[in-house]
Design brief:
- This protein is an alpha+beta fold.
- It folds into two domains: 275 residues, FAD/NAD(P)-binding domain; 143 residues, Elongation Factor Tu (Ef-tu), domain 3 (Beta Barrel).
- It has twelve helices and 18 strands.
- Helix 1 links the parallel strand 1 and strand 2.
- The radius of gyration is 22 Å and the shape is globular.
- It starts with a strand and ends with a helix.
- Bound molecules: flavin-adenine dinucleotide.
- Flavin-adenine dinucleotide (FAD) binds next to helix 1, strand 2, strand 8, strand 15 and helix 10.
């Protein structure tokens, strides 16, 4: 039997890889480039729509634990990211084009893989729906019907990318916070006067008009920089522009610092970390140009805000990301309310594992809640009146109360790895 996957993003590609490795035949339907989403810009599979960072590599951070578990599950996204990585201190950042190409090449190695460039607006049995936060309207309407109108919307924001050659290096320096790891960040310091001028311009700048919503409900980690700035004059200085641990060549600490992170292997592009924004393009040039190092910055891509759709998963989904209504239909990725690149990919692995079990008439399974993927899946599927998207974090794990605070994260990491290893062995995955 051929399994249909709708959406060639992170979750869809990861699910396809799992199915193909198990010998199943996969038909993947990706609508780009025939029909683009408002944020994707290429026809590549597994395109990273915003940041090129897949977050922390620290094995005792929640994102690090997620990566450890995904490595045990032989994640295609993780392997490809490790091959396409660019220097980013303690984070796993990638050359986004190389990353997508590696994934596409790996899938194309399987004779049983067929890719169709086509928008789908129907829901058939034996399908994994992984169409992401920018699911096309036609399919979104169909999903709405399928889920008895329990679909929700919210909004997300992307940060601008500037050309390295346009950054004034007289006013910028490379360095990492407290000199930890490599000096991969490009720091743009500001004096108090410069910062206050910038802050005032930012809170008074013109925003782009958003069409089909009135009160955007934005995930806190993607809050537009202008919204953060309006919370108080020092909010940015305690957030994305915090100067602590950043010293220039003369050992001076600035009043505020905008940090730029490498976007591509060639070192030509940098994104302004934490500067996701809904300002008009002109306002971005005017306001961000008040940062001395960026006064002549050329924007390779402006920051933008987009629709972000996700299901009311606690009502719609059951174990293993199967639809309660029909367990031959699975949802995966951000559309299920997992938040983040790696989390989306992880849900794709679980959906595929369970699709393979459904084909053999086996029961649906999920990793133990002491693993981070198990805990996140449990959260997504558990009763919750105010369901909101969720990323991997230690707060989801059962608390370890008889462990000293300074070693708790390391203990979470150890317990999670053991739990995932047991799960994999138990079901011969
Ligand atoms: C603007 C924006 C910025 C984001 N920034 C970040 C970030 O910086 N870091 C982070 O960790 N997460 C970020 N996210 C959240 C999330 O991690 C990503 O959206 C991630 O790509 C989700 O993976 P996915 O596989 O679920 O969906 P996607 O990667 O979006 O893949 C879905 C695919 O389905 C296709 N598709 C849609 N409808 C149809 C249809 N009807 N038929 C056929 N194909 C269809 C799309 O073209 C797309 O290729 C962001 C999300 C948005 C919207």
């Amino acid at each position: 039997m051929r399994i249909k996957i709708i959406g060639g993003g992170l979750a869809g590609c990861e699910a396809a890889y799992r199915l193909l490795k198990a010998g199943a035949a996969v038909e993947m339907y990706e609508m780009r480039p025939v029909k683009m989403t408002p944020a994707h810009t290429t026809s590549q599979l597994a395109e990273l729509v915003c940041s090129n960072s897949l977050k922390s590599l620290d094995p005792t951070s929640a994102q690090g634990v997620l990566k450890t578990e995904m490595r045990l599950l032989d994640s295609l996204v993780l392997k490809s990211a490790e091959t396409a990585h660019v220097p980013a201190g303690g984070a796993l950042a990638v050359d986004r084009y190389a990353f997508s190409q590696i994934i596409e090449n790996e899938l194309n190695k399987f004779a049983n893989f067929k890719l169709f460039r086509q928008e789908i607006d129907t829901i058939d049995q034996y399908t994994i729906i992984a169409t992401g936060p920018l699911t096309s309207d036609a399919l979104a309407n169909r999903i709405k019907q399928f889920t008895d109108n329990e679909n929700l919307n919210f909004f997300d924001a992307a940060a601008p990318i500037v050309e390295f050659s346009s950054i004034d290096m007289e006013h910028a320096f490379f360095g990492s916070r407290y000199n930890k790891g490599d000096a991969d960040y490009l720091n743009c310091p500001m004096t108090k006067e410069e910062y206050l001028l910038f802050h005032n311009a930012l809170i008074n700048a013109t925003c782009a008009k958003l069409k089909d919503f009135e009160t955007p409900n934005v995930f806190e980690g993607c809050m537009p920089v202008e919204v953060l700035a309006k919370r108080g004059v020092d909010t940015l200085r305690f957030g994305p522009m915090r100067p602590v641990g950043l010293y220039d060549k003369s050992g001076n600490r600035a009043y505020a610092v905008a940090q730029l992170r490498l976007e591509d292997c060639a070192g030509l592009l940098y994104n302004i970390v934490g500067f996701q924004t809904n300002l008009t393009f002109k306002a971005q040039r005017d306001v961000f140009g008040l940062i001395p190092a960026l006064k002549n910055a050329i924007f390779a891509r402006y920051g933008v805000m987009h629709r972000n759709s996700y299901l009311n998963s606690p009502r719609v989904l059951t174990t293993g990301f199967a639809a309660k209504k029909d367990t031959t239909i699975f949802f995966a990725g951000q559309l299920t309310g997992v938040e983040g690149y790696m989390e989306s990919a992880a849900s794709g692995i679980l959906a595929a594992i369970n699709m393979l079990r459904i084909l053999k008439n086996d029961s649906l399974i999920s990793p133990p809640t002491t693993s981070i993927i198990g805990a996140l899946s449990h959260y997504i599927m558990s009763e919750n009146k105010n369901f909101q998207p969720m990323r991997a974090c230690f707060g989801l794990l059962p608390f370890l109360d008889n462990v000293k605070k300074d070693v708790r994260h390391a203990e979470y990491a150890k317990r999670s790895e053991e739990a995932m290893t047991r799960f994999i062995n138990q079901y011969s995955l």
